[in-house]
Amino acid sequence: MEITNQLLQEFKDRLHISHSSEDDNLKRLLSFSVSAIKSSCGDFNIYGTSETDNRAKELVFERTRYAYNDALEYFQGNFISEITSLGLSLIPEEDETDATI
Questions:
Q1: What are phi and psi of 50, to 5 degrees?
Q2: How would you class 63 by CB atoms within 10 Å of its CB: exposed for 0-12, middle for 13-18, buried for 19 or more?
Q3: What is the pLDDT of residues 14-55, one digit of tens each?
Q4: d(CA 48, CA 57)
Q5: Is the backbone of residue 77 left (phi > 0), alpha (psi -120 to 50) or beta?
Q6: What is the reported pTM?
Q7: What is the CB neighbour count within 10 angstroms for residue 85?
Q8: DSSP label at residue 19
Q9: Cβ atoms within 10 A of the Cβ of 4, count?
Q10: Residues 6+ apart with CB under 8 A from 89
Q11: Which residue, 26, 45, 49, 91, shows the most beta carbons closer than 10 Å to its own?
Q12: Which residue, among 8, 70, 71, has the nearest Cα to 34 in the 3D structure?
């Protein structure tokens, strides 16, 4: 997943990181987090503007923050409710005409 400079800057602003010496590492961590959240919850658009995409981006940022601070092992336990909720909202709805009675 290609992480744009705009997304990187949004993450850096959130963590109050003003230097650029870690940009490559942060992009890598963001990319890993997008993949991990998609794997756990389902597909979303990290650059989308829907409520679900924004919730997914929030989880990506939180997971990246945990990874950046070498505390990734605590992420799942601390965010299980949000992960489950996002996963449920990303389940595709079945077309009623395809439903079997």
A1: -70, 165
A2: buried
A3: 999 999 999 999 999 999 999 999 999 999 999 999 999 999
A4: 9
A5: alpha
A6: 0.89
A7: 14
A8: -
A9: 12
A10: 52, 55
A11: 26
A12: 8
Structure tokens at 26: 């942060």
What's the CA dihedral at 34, 72, 25, 29 to 10 degrees?
A: 0
Average pLDDT score, the chain: 93
Asked if residue 67 lies in contact with residue 32, where contact means CB atoms within 8 angstroms, the answer is yes
Length of the chain: 101
Q: How many CA atoms lie within 13 A of 100 on its CB side?
A: 0
Closest CA to 66 of 23, 2, 5, 15: 15
Find tokens 């794997």 and name the residue: 39
